[in-house]
């Protein structure tokens, strides 16, 4: 998605050799106009998947999931990373190791919001090692529903997550795929000479 790549080039900050900070439009401040475009693109790419529900994880996946859900006319549920006193009902739970925080969270979703026989589209902001997406897929499996696709805003293709999810048989669509960070600059997959 060219517009997204342009914003990453202009506003992205590379931290170390593996992390990209895009807090001016996705991870802290959110650009709703760009997020609408992102949602439309996901809706286009998964138009034939028969999606009945979108599942994401708090917090940075919510904006993209929300606009995609709006376009696809389905509800969006976000899995929680921390237990809330308000969640005193039955939950599905899985453990997810956070790449950026280097901690393992018990990720939960209320059973009443993730029923059986749903066709679920998983959406997240970044794909690194695939822990978050695999965890969400595990929640869907527990519910007796099906993952019909995984939509990622920014995939870091030099990490293992994309390969892991595709080998698992999931249809993964990433709107921007990063091949490498070279001298603090983002290099997209299409720009790399094969
Ligand atoms: P994974 O679970 O695929 O290893 O990592 C994806 C999760 O970690 C995403 O939910 C995202 O919040 C976070 N993440 C991974 N890499 C980055 C990154 O380079 N930048 C930011 N902002 N978040 C990242």
From TrEMBL:
5-phospho-alpha-D-ribose 1-diphosphate binds at residues 128-132. InterPro entries: PRTase-like (IPR029057), PRTase_dom (IPR000836), Pur/Pyrimidine_PRTase (IPR050118), Xanthine_PRibTrfase (IPR010079). Xanthine binds at residues 20, 27, 156. GO terms for molecular function: xanthine phosphoribosyltransferase activity. Residues 46-157 form the Phosphoribosyltransferase domain. It catalyses: XMP + diphosphate = xanthine + 5-phospho-alpha-D-ribose 1-diphosphate. One of its GO terms (cellular component) is cytoplasm. Its EC number is 2.4.2.22. GO terms for biological process: purine ribonucleoside salvage; xanthine metabolic process; XMP salvage. Pathway: Purine metabolism; XMP biosynthesis via salvage pathway; XMP from xanthine: step 1/1. Pfam families: Pribosyltran (PF00156). The keyword Disulfide bond does not apply. It is found in: Cytoplasm. Keywords: Cytoplasm, Glycosyltransferase, Purine salvage, Transferase. Converts the preformed base xanthine, a product of nucleic acid breakdown, to xanthosine 5'-monophosphate (XMP), so it can be reused for RNA or DNA synthesis. Belongs to the purine/pyrimidine phosphoribosyltransferase family. Xpt subfamily. Homodimer. This is Xanthine phosphoribosyltransferase. It comes from Aneurinibacillus migulanus. The gene is xpt.
């Amino acid at each position: 998605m060219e517009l997204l790549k342009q914003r990453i080039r202009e506003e992205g900050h590379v931290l170390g050799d593996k992390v990209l900070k895009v807090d001016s439009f996705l991870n802290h401040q959110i650009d709703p106009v760009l997020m609408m475009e992102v949602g439309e693109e996901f809706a286009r790419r998964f138009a034939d998947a028969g999606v009945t529900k979108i599942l994401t994880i708090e917090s940075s996946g919510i904006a993209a999931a929300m606009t995609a859900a709006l376009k696809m006319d389905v509800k969006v549920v976000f899995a929680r990373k921390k237990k809330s006193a308000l969640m005193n009902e039955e939950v599905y739970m899985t453990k997810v190791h956070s790449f950026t925080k280097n901690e393992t969270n018990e990720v939960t979703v209320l059973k009443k919001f993730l029923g059986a026989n749903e066709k679920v589209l998983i959406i997240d902001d970044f794909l690194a090692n695939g822990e978050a997406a695999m965890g969400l897929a595990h929640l869907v499996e527990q519910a007796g529903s099906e993952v019909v696709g995984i939509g990622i805003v920014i995939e870091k293709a030099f990490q293992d997550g994309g390969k892991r999810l595709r080998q698992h048989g999931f249809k993964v669509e990433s709107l921007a795929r990063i091949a490498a960070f070279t001298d603090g600059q983002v290099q997209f997959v299409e720009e790399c000479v094969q």
